Amino acid sequence: MSASDPFRFCICCEADCYEEDPEHAENCPSTTGVFPVAKRDLVSISAEGELEHSGMRCMDCEDSFAVGDHYTHRHVGRGGPPGMPEADVYEVICLGCAALAAVA
Ligand SMILES: [Zn+2]
Ligand SMILES: [Zn+2]
Predict the structure, then answer these.
(1) Ordered DSSP codes for the chain
(2) How many whole angstroms from 95 Cα to the centroid of ligand 2?
(3) What pLDDT is stored for residue 50 in this prediction?
(4) How far is the CA of 71 from the centre of ligand 1 (A)?
(5) Which residues surround ligand 2, an ion (CB under 5 A)?
(6) 67 Cα–ligand 2 center, Å
(7) How far is C-alpha 12 from the chain's CA centre?
(8) Which residues have CB under 8 Å from 70's CB, separation 6+?
(9) What spacing in Å lies between the alpha carbon of 38 and ligand 2's midpoint?
(10) What is the pLDDT of residue 96?
């Protein structure tokens, strides 16, 4: 842990995420649960170091997201990648599906 820890401060409102109760801004995605799609969400770096278009899709309706769209997370349980059995696992869904799920 150091001041240069990239996960310490929220990238949106710079709240200190190591505080027990971080004070995110009211419009921060951590507060609203709604995240804007950024260009970096749609690309990934391949093993060869090349930029790949990976895309992002709603897990429910399979709509693909574009930069500027908004998405939210659905908690689907625990069991992350190897070595992180306790990690929370989230699915990415669009706001339309989130609204449907909320009234279902
Ligand atoms: Zn924040
Ligand atoms: Zn959807």
Answers:
(1) --TT-TTTB-TTT--BTTSSS----TTSHHHH-EEE--GGGSEEE-TTS-EEE---B-TTT-PBP-TT-EEEEEEEEE--STT-TT-EEEEEEEHHHHHHHHH-
(2) 7
(3) 82
(4) 16
(5) 58, 60-61, 94, 97
(6) 16
(7) 12
(8) 34, 35, 36, 37, 94, 95
(9) 18
(10) 95
* pTM for this predicted structure: 0.71
Position 41 scores a pLDDT of: 85
Ligand nearest to the CA of 29: 1
CA–centroid distance, 84 to ligand 2, in Å, is 28
Q: Do the beta carbons of residue 65 and residue 72 sit within 8 Å? A: no
Q: State the CB neighbour count (10 A cutoff) for residue 49.
A: 6
Distance (angstroms) between ligand 1 centre and the Cα of 8 equals 11
